[in-house]
């Protein structure tokens, strides 16, 4: 599957219960049916478990649970609500920094 086709197939925003979403994972493509609600969340966690992908769950608002996991060079968030699911992916080179003045400035800018 070429990247152009992937870009045309990728959905933006919330997914309905019957929607399919393409996720690009390292060099492989796979199609999975992502559903909202608790049933969808549990199915997605099983999907990650089957692939030995470690994840964290966070409940930061009254209406959703977010799954956080990392892949090489990527941090992924998948948010499950009762009637919708959406996701985002952050990329980087995973390099570490030793200049703590930059860390301090970053924290001060957001507090």
Q: Could you say which structural class the secondary elements and strand pairing correspond to?
A: alpha+beta
How many domains in all?
1
Distance between the termini: 44 Å
| Biggest sheet details | 4 strands, antiparallel
Share in β-strands: 35-45%
Indicate the mean pLDDT: 77
The counted number of beta strands is 6
Radius of gyration (CA) equals 16 Å
Shape: globular
* Strand order, largest beta sheet: 3-4-5-6
What's the helical proportion of residues? 25-40%
| Oligomeric state | single chain
**Low-confidence blocks of residues:** 1-12, 15-29
Describe the structure in brief.
This protein is of the alpha+beta class. 28% of the residues lie in helices and 38% in strands. It has one domain.
Overall description:
With 111 residues, this protein is an alpha+beta fold. The protein has one domain (3-109). The protein contains 3 helices and 6 strands, in the order H-E-E-H-E-E-E-E-H. It has helices at 3-9, 37-50, 100-109, and strands at residues 20-25, 28-33, 55-61, 64-71, 74-81, 85-91. The strands form 2 sheets. It has a 4-stranded antiparallel beta sheet, with helices on one face. The N and C termini lie far apart (44 Å). Mean pLDDT is 77; it is low at 1-12 and 15-29.
């Amino acid at each position: 599957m070429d990247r152009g086709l992937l870009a045309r197939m990728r959905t933006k925003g919330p997914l309905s219960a019957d929607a399919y979403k393409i996720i690009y994972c390292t060099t492989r493509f796979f199609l999975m049916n992502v559903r909202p609600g608790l049933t969808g969340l549990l199915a997605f966690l099983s999907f990650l478990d089957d692939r030995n992908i470690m994840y964290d769950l966070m409940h930061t608002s009254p209406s959703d649970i977010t799954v956080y996991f990392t892949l090489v060079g990527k941090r992924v968030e998948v948010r499950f609500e009762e009637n919708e699911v959406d996701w985002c992916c952050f990329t980087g080179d995973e390099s570490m920094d030793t200049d703590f003045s930059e860390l301090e400035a970053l924290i001060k800018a957001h507090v």
